[in-house]
């Protein structure tokens, strides 16, 4: 379908109030149309029983596929709630993205300060401070210059030199991020922030709140492996999720069942910046190197924002130090898989 055709259908849908037509025009489709690979970046979601009460829609957002499954006796209400949740995802992503030149984050990175900061950005920055403190600096949103250095060199098939790395490390450190009164944010000269390790989780939490506010209290959201569940799957069963095998051979390390909660995985097997795969998308803010003590880290928490940030922090810290941190945080559990495929579980991790 051409862009013009989509726009015409969208306009018609707005005029007639036919949300279903507008969903189709906007790229929201049934999960079967995109295939099983859409939902398996970090987890396998078991569908449960087929039911007329279950409705799944998938859309591209935040650089990945986002799947929303709603369980409700009214398909029209479920469709309306899913549409509203996707709208919220797009709205908040527009605020928190570093890649959108119109976003407040992009403006902050360009100018070094931001006044009248949107409350969503304030929430995420406050969360970043919290997890930076809990992890003793392992989680740090000021690694933006390091990521940019890696991306720029990777585009030319190069690895950054030691001098460039040392210079860039001088631009990293949350002690030079200021969150003041009246929604003022400042960063040190030459610094930039990247919210990649926390923003997606926050956005998924917001979408879950929208679904619940529309009366859809039984749902699952999977945003490229950042998962939020509420209530039950069909048949009043908990949602069933298998943690992805880092080797991608379907040897799932564990199976978990969830009602209300969140889970996120950080792994070293997705994005690389050099040919020998020693530099990947998770970077230690203290050394500018990619940690290799773990291959994947899965964290369960009350919110996806927390699970998202803590899985990154544990990956940087390594299984031993990371799990010690997790043990100090209430209602949070972790499963880390080390480079030798050894599993490290927090004391409260419960397999299904």
Detailed description of the structure:
With 352 residues, the protein is of the alpha+beta class. Helices cover 36% and strands 21% of the residues. The protein has a nine-stranded antiparallel β-sheet with strand order 1-3-4-8-9-12-13-14-15, with helices on one face. A three-stranded antiparallel β-sheet has the order 2-10-11, with no helix packed on it. It has a three-stranded antiparallel β-sheet with strand order 5-7-6, covered by helices on one side. α1 (3-16) runs antiparallel to α2 (19-26). It is globular. The chain starts with a helix and ends in a 7-residue tail after the last strand.
Distance between the termini: 44 Å
Encode the helix/strand succession as letters: HHEEEEHHEHHHEEHEEEEEEHHEE
CATH level 3 topology of the domain at 31-98 and 201-258: T-fold
Strand-residue proportion: 15-25%
Strand order of the largest sheet: 1-3-4-8-9-12-13-14-15
Looking at CATH, the homologous superfamily of the domain at 31-98 and 201-258 is ApbE-like domains
Shape: globular
